Amino acid sequence: MMAQPQSSPKADKAPAIDFDKFNPTRSYTAARKRKDVAMRALIILAFVVALIPLVSVLWTTLVHGARRLNWDFLSHNMTNVIGGNQTPSGGYGGILHAIVGTLEITLGAMVISIPIGVMCAVYLIEYAGGSKLARTIHLLVDVMSGIPSIVAGLFAYSMFAILVGPGTLSGFEGSVALSLLMIPTVVKTTEEMLKIVPNDLREASLALGVTKQRTITKVVLRTALSGIVSGSILAIARVIGETAPLLMTAGYIVSTNANLFSGEMTTLPVYVYQEYSKYHANCPADAGSGCVTGIPMERAWSAALVLIVIVLILNLIGRIVAKVFAPKKK
Amino acid sequence: MGQQIDVNHLNIYYGNFLAVEDVNLHIAANKVTAFIGPSGCGKSTVLRSLDRMHEITPGAHVTGEVLLEGKNLYAKDVDPVAVRRDVGMVFQRPNPFPTMSIRQNVLAGVSLNNRKIAKSDADDLVEWALRGANLWNEVKDRLDNPGIGLSGGQQQRLCIARAVAVHPQVLLMDEPCSALDPISTLAVEDLIEELKSDYTIVIVTHNMQQAARVADYTAFFNLKAVGQPGHLEYFADTSTMFNNPQNEEAERYVSGRFG
Amino acid sequence: MSPMTSASKPSSSSASSLTKPVSGEKADRVFRAVAYACGILILVVLAAVALFLLFRAWPLIGGDQRTNGEVIANFTGGRATNFWGYVGPLLFGTVLVAALALVIAFFVSIGIALFISHYAPKRLAAALSYIVDILAAIPSVIYGLWGGLVLVPAIYPFWNWVAEHLGWIPLFAGPAANPPRTVATVALVLAIMILPIITSITRDIFLQTPKLLEEAALGLGATKWEMIRLSVLPFARSGIVSASMLGLGRALGETMAVLMILSPGLKYSFHLLQASQNQTIAANIAAQYPEADSIGVSVLIGTGLVLFVITFLVNLLARRITEKASK
Questions:
Q1: Contact indicator for A184, A192 with CB cutoff of 8 Å
Q2: pLDDT at B182 (0 to 100)
Q3: What is the set of domains in chain B, with CATH numbers?
Q4: DSSP string of C229-260, one letter each residue
């Protein structure tokens, strides 16, 4: 219907309005104000409430963890550790084997998931455009990022049980489980980075007669490199703290095993959990004052501290890479 | 009835940056006053300072005073929320609440102020406000449809209806037609002409023909250079401003030689 | 083409370079094929997850039901003898804990997100965003450790107070367990863990609220909170829903924090403050797994499959909502 600007509608029969009816009462205005202040207070409170656990987690880990964290702890594994007794080296066992395990298993996961993830994103952004298949894959990547970690563990376990043989446990099996959790993150961050590479760059390169593959590897991926690197580091920081999938795939041992493809391996988070579940160490009645009953908990805290430090440093590096080397947005 | 506004020695700051310098202005009741001037001269900022809307930018503050019928809007005990109820505002682009029906949009302001409104009172108010905004005949059969289903010009008139439903004394319009097609613009301009019997209207516009068509008085804002504060260069009744301005800059501007 | 490259080629190529394969054509095709394969691999992997789990859980469906029943009876102390009788209480516990965590985290997350997007000064807001990210980065095993050793003893007085004063509500029926290795405590820890997810998504959407809508509300004389209610929350509605679903998905699958804190039980029980009432699927798998025999593992994998399907659906729903809203 067309506007009728010429008519003067107020003339005919606009209802007469007693505006006093709609005027706010003084008490209601005050009530509105009180509500506004109350909501502001609640919102600030929500924030403070969330800070409490964060501060508490970081603080207690730092305080408890620092007690047993020394070179001996970092350079020994758990062989020859009997109850709460001191080991010959004067320590109470350590996390060397767990650090080795964490590094190798995470490295394995990286080697599997970063190439796959990056290439999948390349397919989605550079080749598939907005095709139906691409949209389905995109959606499934999102959904995949929500798979519970324990299901990833069960998957790797089942796969190796079927393909290799029942009861197989190895570090690589853990890597496979972690890749399942890592691939979606890598795909998603790479996609985001490829999207902000300006189309002009691609067209300029293609117009020079450069093949698509070289355009992608030499121009597009290079431009997006910092984002991909920082995204991958953040993905690593995520999976490096995973426990549940490794419990059932990599197992748990007390000695150092450097072979990713054979034998059980311990990682830091699993170590934390195992020490936590021991609860108390035995101290025979004739043991000296060097025997500490609560040593498993103290070891758990110290390993947790090392883990938190690794995760936070990885996070920091990822953020710095993203910030410093970020391509300038338009 | 509309109320008059007196602006005395108004300086507007964003943080440490002085955006507008020493504005002195009398805005007459029940008249249309237009603000014109080149981009960045601070005309929108001054308009927004009249209902303290500029304060939603962090760090914004003013010195000087704005008197609404003699009452300083920037006095310590004045609540900006109450100011905005007395001084309504219509924005550059129509902005009805997307999740609300036409009826709910019109009632949005009053339902903030009152907990319970009798349905018949609400019906009357909706009809009154929509008639006031020249929109009643077009939407009376679909008041429960979403407000964003309307055309751009209808949406803008809906926003005007929403503003007048609160029954303000003053109506501020920040380039209300800049996003509208010519026909909708005409409809809104005619509406402004009708509304001034009930409200004091201040309108910012980039379109000088529009200022010449709708305004009784015109204020010309200018700035000395980019990065310098804007200021009120010249104020006159509209016919003087456009036919015989006593100010060189204003003459250059209205004759289209700069800006 | 530069003269160098054309010179290095056989002379015939200059005439028909438009149709003849140029150098790099093969690499181009291989690269494309690899990219395509990686895309398809995502589909394959997801299908493989379902298939391998199904295959490993098969003895449960196709195997001897008598042995299955014995294994399950062994797991449950004779309380259940078939799979659905076993997975039922687990599923109930999983959903109960996750839903509680969501209820707790929801309001706090929205509050923090609003604080960051609309209340805090800019510089403070950036710092807060970083803090929320740290909260997200802390591994779950550390939350479990902290929950088990710090929170459990610290929170007992509070739960005890709740049980005494609100005990007339069946949910809070006392006596509160001491140590409180209960659903209530676990839900609290899970809430802390999913808080950063919900916060960061909703914060981004709150920040996208059109300035125009906020001004519309303020121009009518709305207070800040009324502006948020009129403009920000309606605009962000679908984002809030999908963020909550993602948080829920995370809470459903969380293992370690539950495993390390909860004293498990297999009841259909709403007694949040009492110990040994419920258990979640994920924690149950991790707890029973080390001692399970082959059929036991099949049963556990069967429960894992149920968990997979549920989280898959929750996540799918969440993404669908986001997708629809962004159109």
A1: no
A2: 87
A3: 5-95+172-254 (3.40.50.300)
A4: IIIIHHHHHHHHHHHHHHHHHHHHH--HHHHH
Residues A42 and A134 in one domain: no
Q: Is C112 on the interface with A (CB under 8 A)?
A: yes
Alpha-helical regions (H) of chain C: 3-8, 25-62, 65-76, 83-114, 122-137, 140-146, 152-166, 183-207, 211-219, 224-227, 233-253, 256-261, 281-288, 294-326
Residue C242 in any domain: the answer is yes
User: So what's the pLDDT on residue A14?
Assistant: 66
* A108: CATH: 1.10.3720.10
**Token pair belonging to A87:** 């080991």
Determine contact: C213 vs chain B, CB below 8 A. Answer: yes
Q: Give the pLDDT confidence of C124-146 residue by residue, as tens digits.
A: 888 888 888 888 889 999 999 99
Asked if A3 lies within 8 A of B112 by C-beta distance, the reply is no
* Residue B92 dihedral angles phi and psi, to the nearest 5°: -55, -50
A59 Cβ under 8 Å from any chain B Cβ: no
Residues of A in contact with C254 (CB under 8 A): 148
Q: Is A77 on the interface with C (CB under 8 A)?
A: no
Q: Which residues of C touch A165 (CB under 8 A)?
A: none
Mutation test of the interface with chain C: which of B47, B81, B87, choosing the one with the most C Cβ atoms within 10 A?
B81
Distance CA A49, CA C108 (A): 8
* Number of Cβ atoms within 10 Å of the Cβ of A199: 7
Q: Is C149 a member of any domain?
A: yes
- With CB atoms and an 8 Å threshold, state whether C39 touches A162: no
Kindly state the average pLDDT of the residues A217-233. 87
Global ipTM? 0.86
- Which residue from B175, B215, B202 is spatially nearest to B26, judged by alpha carbons? B202
Binary contact (C41, A60; C-beta < 8 A)? no
- Chain A residue nearest residue C323, CA to CA: A139
pLDDT above 90 as % of chain A: 35
Mutation target vs C (from A37, A45, A57; most C CBs, 10 A cutoff): A57
* 3-state helix/strand/coil string of chain A: CCCCCCCCHHHHHCCCCCHHHHCCCHHHHHHHHHHHHHHHHHHHHHHHHHHHHHHHHHHHHHHHHHHHCCHHHHHCCCCCCCCCCCCCCCCCCCCHHHHHHHHHHHHHHHHHHHHHHHHHHHHHHHHCCCCHHHHHHHHHHHHHCCCCHHHHHHHHHHHHHHHCCCCCCCHHHHHHHHHHHHHHHHHHHHHHHHHHCCHHHHHHHHHCCCCHHHHHHHHHHHHHHHHHHHHHHHHHHHHCCCCHHHHHHCCCCCCCCCCCCCCCCCCHHHHHHHHHHHCCCCCCCCCCCCCCCCHHHHHHHHHHHHHHHHHHHHHHHHHHHHHHCCCCCC
Residue numbers of the domain that contains A40:
33-66
Domain limit, last residue, from A47, A66, A85: A66
Out of B81, B97, B108, closest to residue C223 by CB: B81
Closest residue on chain C to B110 (Cα):
C220
CA distances from A17 to B29, B125, B128 (A): 21, 7, 7
- Whether the CB of C212 is below 8 Å from some CB of chain B: the reply is yes
B223-239 confidence digits (pLDDT tens): 888 888 899 999 999 99
Does C217 contact chain B (CB < 8 Å)? yes
Residue A321 shares a structural domain with residue A303: yes
Nearest-Cα distance to chain C for B51, in Å, is 8
pLDDT of residue C27: 85
Q: Residue A14: inside a domain, yes or no?
A: no
| Residues in B lying within 8 Å of A, measured between beta carbons | 79, 81-82, 110, 112-115, 117, 121, 124-125, 127-128, 131-132, 134, 136-138, 153-154, 167, 183-184, 186-187, 190-191, 194
